[in-house]
Protein 1
Amino acid sequence: MAITKSCCACKEDKPLEEFHKDSREPDGRRPDCADCRNKNKKIIRDLRKIVGEPPQNCQCCGRPAKNHKLSLDHDHETGEFRGWLCQPCNRSLGIIGDDLESVMRFVTYLTNV
């Protein structure tokens, strides 16, 4: 029986070979399958042509980007551009989740501590 993994993007169970290698991951493979990764890369490439140059500051936290490197943030379901984020904000959003309900739970937590 082949070893499978669930893609974090399409949620499908696929053979492990359909995930690119990534030594930083516990199982040695990326969390998204190669098909989803390629689709996402194409969306980002196409959006970069439309949205132009990134601003000087992160559009989430407002801090200046280190080495002027901001990530193009987009809705993974619709492909719609949302803004330019620094690496910490982009990672945080990915971990928390792209839904307002999850973000509001953090706000509630911080307001009640």
Note: The mean pLDDT is 90.
Protein 2
Amino acid sequence: MKEITDELMMQMISQAKLYSIVLLKSGPNYGKPENQPIIWEHARRNFALREEGLLSVVCPVSDDTDLKGIGIFNAALEQTKEIMEGDPGVIAGVFNFEVHTARSFPGDSLPK
């Protein structure tokens, strides 16, 4: 493993930027077959948010918990809350969400 110096750590920490993390959870209407079109539109909206540069990372969660997805937004906490309140899945009660402020480093990405 590469040695990480204190100087490198301080340099990287100084470049950290605020992001918003969304934890998407199942809502009271989750799992109803008639809601599949709503989930499809939720996904379409996620693609549009990615195209606009607002949703930097989106990770659907497919285990058997109430957590259904994680999103990292390139937006402030309040803006992210407003974005999520307009989500078709949230409006329909298919999903609930939590928003948290987090820091990360510009340019971080998932491996290809």
Note: The radius of gyration is 16 Å.
Protein 3
Amino acid sequence: MNSARILASLIPAFLALFAVALSNLPVSFSGGLLPPPLLGLAVIYFWTLLRRDLVPPVLVLVVGLFEDFLSGGQPGLWAVGYLVAYALTDRQRDAFAGLSSWGVVVGFSIVIFATSSVVYLFGALVYWRLAPVQPLLIQTIVTIIFYPLMAVVLGLVHHRFVGASRSDD
């Protein structure tokens, strides 16, 4: 395996961790009115559809724990959510990948709504109370709105850096 191929295989991991860090910066373009999108989850979804060989479950766990750490949430809360998103995306990979560009966004919407539901229920079990649904729902919608832009950027990265190292799944 050459060094360019090794570097290309690390790009999804780096992008997922970078996306989590970016979405947890203490900067708000909406003046604090909207929560930040879950950019790390968008990266996991994209690469699971395109190159699941580059997104092992342990990476998804690490990215989810990184989200928990940076967001100040209960450790394991988003890690579980990210693993659920990964499992659902992987299970429906052929169906989602075969969709048109907007169909992929619909697939992402299904995955993130399922993920948010699991995170909400898991959080209710951890904290022994039901939190308001609105903040998580708004964050889910904001993430869906950001996904097409993320997909374009990630698609460019894929074609420029990772596509040449394509391996059989």
Note: The CA atoms of residues 81 and 118 lie 6 Å apart.
Protein 4
Amino acid sequence: NVETGKLKWHQHWPAPCYSGSLNTASGITFVGWLGQGNAQDGKGFLEAQDSATGASLWKSPLMTAPVGAAPVTYSVGGEQYVSVAVGGQSHNDVSRPLGLTNPARLRDDSIYTFVLP
């Protein structure tokens, strides 16, 4: 909280978040996840949270691979979108327990885009 300098809310997540987050002027924070629970399933998803409270507002369907980049938002023709990259092969996350050189770790490279209401 800027006015008081005190922590407003805090969350403990069961899995690391390599993607970072996106905070919007409208008070929504988008977080990309590596997977469900402790992320061992490798099925990432995007979540919208209330920036003031941390409450979950929406979760995307499961994706084909972990979210590996920060979400971006943009407007085209009056419609607002949020996009995020999934997959990639640049780091050894918890959903790739076999290590960087094992071919089983290679999977997907996709962009998921959602229109915001």
Note: The radius of gyration is 15 Å.
